[in-house]
């Protein structure tokens, strides 16, 4: 699947030079902690001792989920309204993108109602109006729809002119999809992968887990090898916005671009993308650990250490944009800091 899409392992040939540069800085050795690791990754990605990420773009994909009609979210199916809010510059993500100089691109991947467009354009990548089917009783989407969403994303990722790609999503009910994908791919029980999403209480979480488990019982991936297994899971219990984001990740990584993950939903996108091509993980940076219960374990599985830990559970790409100042800070350090030898000569 996607044989023509080549993703090279992140070129480590620059790693020695990058580590040496870090170790030469006028700081006690290792004093930048996790920011030091980030610095090395940034340098390697651009094969430069002074990397810059001026053109950053958040791909915010929105879609509705059939399972949301069964009360698995604290909120009704208002995904079109929250996307419209961002289009009218009234969402948290607008404020964050404005503050941190990030281009915001909104995508309708399949909503129940058409969103009212404001001053920020909403690009149409609709797979099916009305969103996915209720995965607790039937496949969320057809193979054609799943493939189309992945292809839409690949095209977006490949044609992006930005040097840093941020992932964001909106979709009432999408934590149910994400938990289902995680559970099926890792052979876990739904109850061990669900969380409160937008704010369910314990009773709501039990109800959500029961419906997810019911959906997982409808199909098996035991006979499938990767990436067919991941494709089947995405088709059976996934969402249009998640599939589009998987494609964006694959397309961006194939062009050597770094990808900044957001919360639980984008970690599940990473898990899926890695099943299509394991090298995609080389290009991904985890921005934050969200409040969603399974996010921490999933990040460990992906071998990703989040930069921030703020107990946020907003989605929209908010955590990813909040990590930009750290990336900018590291770039500024690399550009401006003296070496210890230079400092001792001052
Ligand atoms: O980013 C996260 O980790 C995260 C955790 C919980 C909820 N969300 C957001 O809330 C929505 C999904 O929650 P729910 O309860 O409707 O499944 C969706 O629009 C996400 O952007 C996001
Ligand atoms: C208001 C609202 C804003 C959101 N942003 C992302 N998911 C969301 C869900 C709701 C309910």
User: How many helices in DSSP terms?
Assistant: 14
From the spread of the alpha carbons, the general shape counts as: globular
Contiguous low-pLDDT stretches (5 residues minimum) are none
On the 0 to 100 scale, the average pLDDT is 97
Structure notes:
- InterPro entries: Nict_dMeBzImd_PRibTrfase, Nict_dMeBzImd_PRibTrfase_bact, Nict_dMeBzImd_PRibTrfase_N, Nict_dMeBzImd_PRibTrfase_sf.
- This is Nicotinate-nucleotide--dimethylbenzimidazole phosphoribosyltransferase.
- Belongs to the CobT family.
- It catalyses: 5,6-dimethylbenzimidazole + nicotinate beta-D-ribonucleotide = alpha-ribazole 5'-phosphate + nicotinate + H(+).
- Helix content is 45%, strand content 10%.
- It is α/β, with parallel strands linked by helices and 346 residues long.
- The radius of gyration is 20 Å and the shape is globular.
- Bound molecules: nicotinate mononucleotide and 5,6-dimethylbenzimidazole.
- Nicotinate mononucleotide binds next to strand 4, helix 6 and helix 10.
Write the layout of secondary structure elements.
Elements: H1 15-24, H2 34-46, E1 56-62, H3 79-87, H4 92-99, E2 103-108, E3 122-124, H5 143-159, E4 164-170, H6 174-186, H7 202-216, H8 228-237, H9 240-254, E5 258-261, H10 264-276, E6 284-286, E7 288-289, H11 295-301, E8 308-309, H12 318-322, H13 324-336, H14 340-345
Helix pairs in contact: 1-2, 2-13, 5-8, 5-9, 6-7, 6-8, 6-10, 9-10
The structure holds nicotinate mononucleotide (NCN) and 5,6-dimethylbenzimidazole.
């Amino acid at each position: 699947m996607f044989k023509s899409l080549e993703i090279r392992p992140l070129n480590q040939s620059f790693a020695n030079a990058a580590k040496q540069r870090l170790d030469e800085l006028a700081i006690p050795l290792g004093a930048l902690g996790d920011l030091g690791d980030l610095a090395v990754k940034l340098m390697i990605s651009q094969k430069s001792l002074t990397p810059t990420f001026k053109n950053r773009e958040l791909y915010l994909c929105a879609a509705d989920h059939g399972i949301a009609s069964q009360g698995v979210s604290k909120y009704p199916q208002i995904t079109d309204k929250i996307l419209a809010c961002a289009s009218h510059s009234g969402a948290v993500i607008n404020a964050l993108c404005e503050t941190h100089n990030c281009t915001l691109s909104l995508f309708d991947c399949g909503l129940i109602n058409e969103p009212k467009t404001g001053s920020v354009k909403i690009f149409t990548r609709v797979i099916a109006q009305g969103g996915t089917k209720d995965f607790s009783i039937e496949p969320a989407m057809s193979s054609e729809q799943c493939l189309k969403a992945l292809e839409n994303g690949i095209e977006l990722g490949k044609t992006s002119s930005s040097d840093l790609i941020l992932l964001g999503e909106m979709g009432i009910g999408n934590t149910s999809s994400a938990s289902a994908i995680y559970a099926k791919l890792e052979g876990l029980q739904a109850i061990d992968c669900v969380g409160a999403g937008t704010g369910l209480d314990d009773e709501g979480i039990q109800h959500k887990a029961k419906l997810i488990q019911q959906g997982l019982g409808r199909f098996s991936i035991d006979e499938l090898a990767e990436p067919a297994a991941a494709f089947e899971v995405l088709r059976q219990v996934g969402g249009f916005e998640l599939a589009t984001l998987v494609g964006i990740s694959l397309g961006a990584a194939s062009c050597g671009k770094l990808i900044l993950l957001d919360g639980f939903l984008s970690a599940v996108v990473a898990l899926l993308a890695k099943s299509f091509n394991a090298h995609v993980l080389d290009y991904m940076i985890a921005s934050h650990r969200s409040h969603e219960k399974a996010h921490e374990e999933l990040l460990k599985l992906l071998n990703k250490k989040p930069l921030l830990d703020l107990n946020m559970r907003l989605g929209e790409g908010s955590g990813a944009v909040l990590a930009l100042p750290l990336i900018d800070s590291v770039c500024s350090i690399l550009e401006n800091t003296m070496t210890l030898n230079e400092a001792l000569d001052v």
